[in-house]
Amino acid sequence: MYHEVLPDELDIPSWLVVREARFRRQMRYLKRHFRVLSLDAALDYMATAASQVKARRPPAVITFDDGYAGNFSCALPILQELRLPFTVYVSTAMLAEGGRFWHDRIIAALITAGRGRLSIETSAGTLEYSGSARLDARRWAGIERILTRLKDLAPAEREAIADRLDPDVKIPALRMMTPAELHELSASPLVTTMASSGREARSRSTTASPVMPGRVMSITAAAKCSGPAANRSIASSPRAADVTA
Q1: 3-state SS class at 64
Q2: How many CA atoms lie within 13 A of 106 on its CB side?
Q3: CA geometry: angle at 109 spanning 4 and 97, to 5°?
Q4: In angstroms, rounded to a whole number, what is the distance separating the alpha carbons of residues 243 and 230?
Q5: How far apart are CA 99 and CA 66, in angstroms?
Q6: pLDDT in tens, 80-122
Q7: For residue 169, what pLDDT is reported?
Q8: How far apart are CA 69 and CA 177, in angstroms?
Q9: Which of 235, 175, 176 is nearest to 205 (CA)?
Q10: What is each CA distance from 33 to 55, 58, 85, 234, in whole angstroms?
Q11: Cα-based angle 94, 99, 228 (whole degrees, multiple of 5)
Q12: Would you kindly state where each structural domain of the chain is located, as residue ranges?
């Protein structure tokens, strides 16, 4: 399961991000050693007796969560070149609003702080961040500590902190696809797109259903519903039950 793939030159020390060159190497490895299947083909395979037999090249499914823009700009060209099918679970609420997740906004703000220090005032006290670490792993450890503390706060306070820290960050990354990008992505025969409701980072119990190219805008509009109405809209496909944990 992936989230975002970005060009190698972008300095985004986040667990969400895989650099483009590394992603290409991983996909080549999968192509050599696994039988990469579409989501539908994998579901069909799991329902047959063949799935009980140990295969020389075991099956694998490539998935992306949330619908980040790099799924379209970076991952799609690589997977098309290698002819590997993949599935993207799209956060329709984020796509409909053209927004970003609170944690992505915080990450962007901390990256913008560069190698300096930043104090974050919260109802639970002041959080201190230092970007002085030279290694990506250590920089991410500092960012992760901040995110872990912020997760304990109420959603409204997290959004308010993100608004305060990230009023106009100019980082061209960690954004969602636009409806036009999603439409073009969905048109590829290699791609299965699944709509997922909900603004928060999701658990595996999230309901999902296919997004077809002609349904992108209607799915986007449905994401503005809430509660039972949204669930009925997004769970309208017969495949939805297959992918709901």
Answers
A1: strand
A2: 25
A3: 60
A4: 17
A5: 12
A6: 999 999 999 998 888 877 778 888 888 888 877 766 788 899 9
A7: 56
A8: 4
A9: 235
A10: 11, 8, 15, 35
A11: 30
A12: 4-98+176-243, 102-165
Question: Measured between alpha carbons, how far is 126 from 114 in angstroms, rounded to an integer?
Answer: 19
pTM over 0.85: no
Structure tokens at 49: 């007796």
CB burial of residue 81 (10 Å; 0-12, 13-18, 19+): exposed
How far apart, in whole angstroms, are the C-alpha atoms of residue 68 and residue 100? Answer: 9
Query: Would you mind telling me the total number of residues written for the chain in this entry?
Result: 245
Classify domain 4-98+176-243 at the CATH class level: alpha beta
Token code pair at residue 7? 């060009």
What six digits make up the tokens of 10? 């972008």
Residues 15/144, Cβ–Cβ less than 8 Å: yes
- H helix runs in 101-135, sequence order: 102-112
Tokens in use for 157? Answer: 């306070």
pLDDT digits (tens, 9 = 90+) for 182-203: 999 999 999 999 887 544 433 2
- Residue 147 CA to residue 110 CA, distance in Å, equals 11
- β-pairing, 86-91 vs 191-196, is parallel
